[in-house]
Design a protein that fits this description.
Number of strands: 22
Shape: elongated
CATH topology of the largest domain: Rossmann fold
CATH class of the largest domain: Alpha Beta
Strand content: 25-35%
Mean pLDDT: 87
Order of helices and strands: HEEEEEEEEEEEEEHEHEEEEEEHEHHHE
Distance between the termini: 64 Å
Radius of gyration: 27 Å
Strand order of the largest sheet: 14-11-15-20-21-22
Length: 372
């Protein structure tokens, strides 16, 4: 027969086990060490996602090969900390890599001494990737650290236009932003976002997909507090307003979202004329940037003045280039402005330069948000 003291001890232990079972503790990263000789594809050391892999480049001719296969498609970081006293370079090859052949890497990182190497790239489920580590200068008896880390793709949405319209008798305008869209789609891969372009679509579509989007890029016609969409499916126009209290089926208002509905949106770019300006007329359309932030979006960029199609294409290209390098949104803004200043440096280009730089940036995290 159990004593009451023993019964209490057993009851307490059972309660502890029950409480522990309610929590899921993150698994500690696994340490993995190279096995020499591992200087060829056939002898490459096997590693796995989120492992800490250690090795030594002991001579300038030493080569270390590692291999990894990801179970899911997505974005992966390949990180190499060379340790002290040497400059190591990192090369990534696909599964077809063969030794002693002129085989081009998918990508390489060759930073100067003292800096770690970091490669961020798209990876595919079931595909093998080889990582090759060599010395550019110096050797060390200290272990380097090699890591791979898989991330799910973020979600991006683009709304662009390609159509012509008659503005007045004898005045015709053709707008084509498909080239912009293709470039932005490519750059979004670089920051880990799979994206889809909704060409010539409606304000209803934009309104419905925005809450589940990480990065939202819009290049349309606009004015203070309003974005105009042209749909090639219905050959009609629809509108997105900062503030709207009506019930027309072709008009949507940002104010109609519930509070916090846009909390998952990291970045919105409204590349449209006057998209960052406030409508203070009797229409009371409000300010698109402020309206989007009020519903939870973290960062939103709109333009105060009119926006030229080509100028904005150049600016956005530099902006996303800097995001791909891992910079914050704030630094990417500064870099794009700097490059515009170099391109449009002549006195007679001042108006172009100032117009594309004249933005309204609304943000709750511009100094810290890193999308890559």
């Amino acid at each position: 027969m159990y004593s009451r003291k023993k019964q209490k001890i057993i009851a307490v232990m059972a309660m502890i086990v029950l409480l522990l079972s309610m929590f899921v503790f993150p698994a500690a990263a696994v340490d993995n060490y190279e096995s020499e000789s591992n200087n060829t594809a056939s002898t490459a050391d096997q590693t796995y996602d989120d492992y800490n892999n250690y090795g030594v480049i002991s001579t300038t001719s030493d080569v270390d090969m590692w291999q990894v296969t990801f179970s899911q498609s997505g974005i992966a970081n390949f990180y190499l900390d060379p340790g002290a006293g040497c400059d190591l370079d990192l090369y990534i090859y696909d599964g077809g890599y063969m030794d002693n052949m002129d085989y081009e890497p998918i990508v390489a990182s060759r930073k100067v001494t003292g800096y770690p190497e970091l490669i961020r790239m798209r990876v595919y489920a079931g595909s093998k990737y080889y990582m090759k580590i060599v010395s550019f200068s110096g050797v060390s008896s200290v272990n380097y650290l090699l890591r791979t880390k898989w991330y799910a793709l973020g979600d991006g949405k683009l709304f662009t236009i390609q159509y012509g319209e008659t503005l007045a008798p004898g005045k015709y305008r053709y707008t084509d932003t498909t080239e912009d869209a293709n470039e932005i789609l490519s750059k979004l891969w670089g920051v880990g976002y799979g994206a889809q372009n909704f060409l010539n679509n409606t304000s209803n579509a934009a309104y419905n997909v925005l809450p589940n989007t990480g990065i939202f890029y819009l290049k349309q016609h606009g004015n203070k507090g309003i974005i105009t969409f042209y749909s090639s499916y219905t050959d009609s126009y629809s509108y997105l307003l900062g503030n709207y209290s009506g019930s027309a089926s072709h008009v949507k208002g940002i104010n109609q979202y519930s509070d916090g509905a846009l909390a998952n949106v990291d970045l919105i770019l409204l590349v449209a004329c006057h998209s960052g300006a406030t409508d203070d007329t009797e229409n009371n359309y409000g300010n698109l940037v402020d309206a989007l932030l009020s519903k939870g979006a973290r960062n939103c960029i709109g333009w105060i003045d009119s926006v030229d199609v080509e100028d904005s294409k150049i600016w956005c290209s530099y902006f996303f280039d800097e995001l791909v390098r891992g910079s914050t949104i704030q630094k990417a803004l500064a870099y794009a402005d700097e490059m515009i200043g170099i391109i449009y440096s002549e006195d007679d280009q001042r108006e172009q330069r100032d117009r594309i730089r004249n933005r309204y940036v609304g943000s709750s995290a511009i100094e810290t948000t890193v999308l890559a």
